[in-house]
Design goal:
This is Acetylornithine deacetylase. It comes from Limnohabitans radicicola. Residues 190-300 form the Peptidase M20 dimerisation domain. With 406 residues, the chain is an alpha+beta fold. It is built from 9 helices and 18 strands. It has 2 domains: 15-192 and 323-403, Aminopeptidase, CATH 3.40.630.10; 194-320, Alpha-Beta Plaits. Helices cover 32% and strands 23% of the residues. The protein has a 6-stranded mixed β-sheet with strand order 1-2-6-3-7-17. Strands 11-13-9-14 form a 4-stranded antiparallel β-sheet, with helices on one face. Strands 4-5-18 form a 3-stranded antiparallel β-sheet. The longest helix has 22 residues, at 218-239. Bound molecules: zinc ion. Residues 90, 122-123, 154, 182 line the site of zinc ion (ZN).
Length: 406
């Protein structure tokens, strides 16, 4: 990915220069690991917005322990539904278990020009900076409404936001654009790849390991299947199609987990392979899956010749669509301006998935732009530079200039 620089240089930044610092500190202090409740963070945020006269609505998960928070800042003429933009971010963070942290991950620590804490990059700083701007947006009066969309369970497959978007559509909200503040180094990301995740299960036949001709070895057949996936990946990497704007310019096929077998002296009965296709717009995940399935099907007659009940099954575990927004669209142009980057060098496409695809799918033109870099996300000692945070604040201020009457 290109590393954009703003047209106008930013002065060296001290933590005390950051207006959003108290809000970032507050949000980081809630340990909202995806498996745990995010309601304490939401309660605090809702109280903050209520104090400013803004009402919020929630959509809960089935357990009632996690929720999305949606808040609308009305336009000066009272309009709440049509037009305007969504500032979107997830409230959950990945776990810190087993990671060697040098500081308390749930407390912001500033050392030199960096801020440390779980979620400072991915992605509480963007949401907190948006909250910091609310008083100013209200005071300067909005031409069109602005919506804040804070989700749960993004890190476990963009689960939570789906309910919020369904509710947004059901309530008749028709925003003209959405900015998802995932870490892009303040680059304006106009597309990302889609992801299809699968579980393939080889159903073999158990036998004593001294009697190999009588068994169907699920682990060995699974390995043949994994080798096929790898060869598909190699073909894509060698021959494309390529979209050079992506950091990884081709579609990828990857095996994440393989599990099977119980003991050395037993021919394994079952083996599971969890794998994914991450595709750009020039590849069809359905076609790639069909290639993999055809190969698996070709292995089955030999398996069934040994034991009739054997076979290979596939399960589509999750789908995250890709998205692509035109660089000359209104939302992209707005973001190039606010980020103060060149539309040529500042436009990016990334290989990681985000909630942007789901807003895009719901008909809302969306871009991804936020402080920090994905390389620091999910890491021990997750950090973001103060310069990136200042850049995000300046983005929000320039956005306010565009969105406000005064
Ligand atoms: Zn994230």
């Amino acid at each position: 990915m290109n590393a954009p620089t703003p047209h106008s240089a930013l002065a060296p930044v001290q933590a005390s220069d950051l207006a959003a610092l108290p809000l970032i500190e507050k949000w980081i202090s809630f340990a909202t690991v995806s498996r745990d409740s995010n309601l304490a963070l939401l309660d605090w945020t809702e109280a903050y917005l209520n104090d400013l006269g803004i009402q919020c609505s929630r959509t809960y998960d089935d357990s009632g322990k996690k929720a999305n928070l949606w808040a609308t800042l009305p336009a000066h003429d009272g309009e709440t539904k049509v037009g305007g933009i969504v500032l979107s971010g997830h409230t959950d963070v990945v776990p810190v278990d087993g990671q060697p942290w040098n500081t308390d991950p749930f407390q912001v620590t500033v050392i030199g020009d960096k801020m440390y804490g779980r979620g400072v990059t991915d992605m509480k700083s963007f949401g907190a900076t948006a909250l910091m701007m609310v008083p100013e947006l209200l005071k300067r009066q909005l031409k069109r409404p602005v919506h804040l969309a804070f989700s749960y369970d993004e890190e476990v497959g963009c689960i939570g936001v789906r309910r919020m978007i369904a509710d947004m559509v059901a309530q008749g909200f028709k925003p003209a654009g959405c900015i998802v503040g995932e870490p892009t180094g303040m680059q304006v990301v106009i597309a990302h790849k889609g992801k299809h995740a699968y579980k393939t299960t080889v159903h073999g036949f158990e036998a004593h390991s001294s009697l190999t001709p009588l068994g169907v070895n699920a682990v060995e057949i699974a390995c043949e299947f994994v080798a096929k996936l790898k060869s598909m990946h190699r073909t894509l990497a060698a021959n494309g199609p390529f979209d050079p704007i992506y950091d990884v310019p081709h579609t990828t096929v990857h095996t994440g987990v393989i599990a099977g077998g119980t003991a050395l002296n037993i021919i394994p009965r079952e083996c599971e392979v969890t794998w994914e296709i991450r595709h750009h717009h020039m590849n069809s995940p359905e076609d790639l899956f069909a290639q993999a399935k055809d190969f698996a099907d070709s292995l089955v007659p030999a398996m069934q010749a040994v034991a009739p009940g054997t076979g290979i099954t596939h399960e589509l575990k999750s789908v995250l669509p890709g998205f692509a927004t035109e660089a000359d669209s209104e939302i992209a142009q707005l973001c190039f301006h606010c980020a103060d980057v060149d539309p040529q060098s500042g436009a990016g496409k990334v290989s990681f998935g985000t909630e942007a695809a789901l807003f895009h799918q719901a008909g809302v033109p969306t871009i991804v732009c936020g402080p920090g870099h994905i390389a620091q996300a999910h890491q021990p000692n997750e950090w973001v530079t103060l310069e990136q945070l200042a850049w995000c604040e300046r983005f929000m201020r320039r956005l306010a200039d565009q969105l406000c009457v005064n």
